[in-house]
Amino acid sequence: MSGHGSPIPMRSQKCGPLSGVAEVPGDKSISHRALILGAMAVGETRITGLLEGQDVLDTGRAMRAFGAEVTDLGDGTWTVHGVGVGGFTEPDNVIDCGNSGTGVRLLMGAVATTDMCVTFTGDASLNGRPMARVTDPLALFGTQAVGRRGGLLPMTIVGAADPVPVRYTVPMPSAQVKSAVLLAGLNAPGQTQVIEREATRDHTERMLAGFGAEITTQDTDEGRVITLTGQPELRPQTIAVPRDPSSAAFPVCAALITPGSDVLVPGIGLNPTRAGLFTALREMGADLTYENMREEGGEPVADLRARFSADLKGIEVDPARAASMIDEYPILSIVAACATGQTVMRGVKELRVKESDRIAAMATGLRACGVTVEDGDDWWIVHGLGHGEIPGGATCVSHLDHRIAMSFLVLGMVTHAPVAVDDGGPIATSFPVFESLMAGLGADISRTA
Ligand code: S3P
């Protein structure tokens, strides 16, 4: 699991129609933020629907190490007794964030403006991912960072004792970088401003407002300008975490490509900064509807209904939508393989620095399964073979990446020969109930060792 356990080889093979209700777990992005902001508030925050995946559990453990009281009450309900902005204590030991880029980058921001020293590490995947994108802006507050060559973990952050507020334009579309700067800005005096040229997921901004911080967002010629007033007293909250659209993507896409399927995926967060995949699928001709639209805990939510879609067509995915579906390109490429015509995905350089190089990982596995894929630095094209036309029969490498493993297991549901993955262990980082949930719908996915 997340690089700490033995590999879990898995296999997926053709199955009958999928049907039923898929209750996917809580949103990973929102779960991390609920624990971190709960720990920075004064008093007790109550969280329901928390994702109990390894990534989030690692963040919860870190919050305890920083002095917050984090309690699991069962059934996804947790409480966090926060220590207030600037109230973290220096942990006795190294903080292991496992597989989680979101966890480590947000935590670096959260400790950057407190006078303490913290060493972060992770698994082999996380320790290969770039951290300078976070430590560069944190240096502007007065934070020091010393890591391995190339700005890699393990890395020690020395928080600024006398932080200054910062104005920073995020050079790449990254909610993690934006959020790290905002969390650092919480304990800096005055106003910290973050500018993003392309809108990325805005859960940090929404949640900071909910916790009572003074935060505004303005759309300007420069981009979105987010202004946060530092050193607020954050008020504890009751947070109902919506279900994760990035996890919903797997049963939804599986239903769209498996003949005869009809699956309901209730209570999915449809924040526009996250819902790009569903728009793209509908453009491809997917029979995907939103039912019972509502608002829960400051986030738009709906029940998704996905039915087998016989006439999926390849599309040119609008690059302006990339940030809103960045984690969903791997599973989109599976749907694209089952569609007719080419699906062209451009402006997706960020995919190369996720838990794995997701373009390389998917292109290699798809080719091994008989699908033609072209790729370049920031683009890739999948040549769809149409329904029921994919040979399969390969073992695909997951590269410690949950979304790569789940994508190939969905592919195996519709290929002539089964598809195997070398290690499904990382699935537990974001979607610990994936196997039982998919089995409940009718999928035939098994562990092979
Ligand atoms: C996340 C932001 C995205 C996304 C990740 C979760 C977040 O990463 O890929 O899974 O919760 O802020 P980037 O900020 O690097 O794009």
Task: Give a quick rundown of the structure.
This protein is α/β, with parallel strands linked by helices and 449 residues long. It is built from 12 helices and 24 strands. The protein has 2 domains: 10-26 and 242-447, UDP-n-acetylglucosamine1-carboxyvinyl-transferase, Chain; 28-229, UDP-n-acetylglucosamine1-carboxyvinyl-transferase, Chain (Alpha-beta prism), CATH 3.65.10.
Give an account of the 3D structure.
With 449 residues, the protein is an alpha/beta fold. It has two domains: 10-26 and 242-447, UDP-n-acetylglucosamine1-carboxyvinyl-transferase, Chain (Alpha-beta prism), CATH 3.65.10; 28-229, Alpha-beta prism (UDP-n-acetylglucosamine1-carboxyvinyl-transferase, Chain). It has helices at 28-40, 54-65, 101-111, 132-141, 175-185, 203-210, 245-257, 276-283, 329-338, 358-368, 402-411, 434-441; strands at residues 10-13, 19-21, 42-48, 69-74, 77-83, 95-96, 117-121, 144-148, 152-158, 167-170, 191-196, 215-220, 223-229, 238-240, 262-269, 287-296, 299-307, 316-317, 340-346, 372-376, 379-385, 395-396, 419-421, 444-447. The strands form six sheets. The protein has a four-stranded mixed beta sheet. Strands 2-15-17-16 form a four-stranded mixed beta sheet. Helix 3 links the parallel strand 6 (95-96) and strand 7 (117-121). Helix 7 packs parallel to helix 11 (402-411). The mean pLDDT is 97. Bound molecules: shikimate-3-phosphate. The site of shikimate-3-phosphate (S3P) has 11 residues, from helix 5.
